[in-house]
Amino acid sequence: xxxxxxxxxxxxxxxxxxxxxxxxxxxxxxxxxQTKNKVTISNQFFSxxxxxxxxxxxxxxxxxxxxxxxxxxxxxxxxxxxxxxGLTGDIDQRLIREFRQYYNPERHDIIILGHHGALQLKxxxxxxxxxxxxxxxxxxxxxxxxxSIKKYARSRVFYQDYVSLSQQAxxxxxxxxxxxxxxxxxxxxxxxTDKITEKTYIFEPSAYAVAAYLETxxxxxxxxxxxxxxxxxxxxxxxxxxxxxxxxxxxxxxxLHTQYSRAKRAxxxxxxxxxxxxxxxxxxxxxx
Length: 288
Description:
Layout: H1 4-39, H2 44-56, E1 73-81, H3 91-102, E2 108-113, H4 115-123, E3 130-132, H5 143-149, E4 152-164, E5 167-174, H6 175-189, H7 207-287
Helix pairs in contact: 1-7, 2-6, 2-7
């Protein structure tokens, strides 16, 4: 039978885990509220940019700000947005599973964001082409990522989507399709009061360059929203994981406390029995 002091030490360790998981749960909850404000980025700026872009573009294809004289790599680049570290539940594992169902090494290159996802790919023996660490601060600079995306003819992003505090989904979107869909929403919300054409406006250095700049701006907005949405989903997943871990730790600590009480009582009972047995022997010796 285990000694009471061993059980007590294990109970104290479990109480420490309860405190840690409770602290991480509270921290996740606080960051969720902060990140929500960033996820709900106003679409007003995108709508204004789209309204100009759709009137001056001369190509039905979205070129990611590449410029019309640049030849793109005839591959699809897959951008995976994952957590910077662990303790986020199974959300990154789910994203990697979704990605592997789509991935073909002959047709795709990989850009991974987040250290935890990079480790997941290494464990799956999948090589990625580029890695970007997620920023620790609120500001997200996606310009290096955009520079890489511009090299490819097509791009698709895999990210975690916040549905609710208890539910997070994995999404896979073609970036140009996502921008077009957002543009359709912008068309419904904006009213063209002034036509923007080369006849009424001067574009420097050219309409092509202005269109490329606007495409870059829209990609920047879209990628930033993807990253913030992923961060929100990761925080929600961490909140759920920490809540579940705290509840299991409390149950285990209470169970250990019961075991400790029983073990302590058992030791007292054994000592009492030994004392009674010794007393009987003393009395028996005296009677002889």
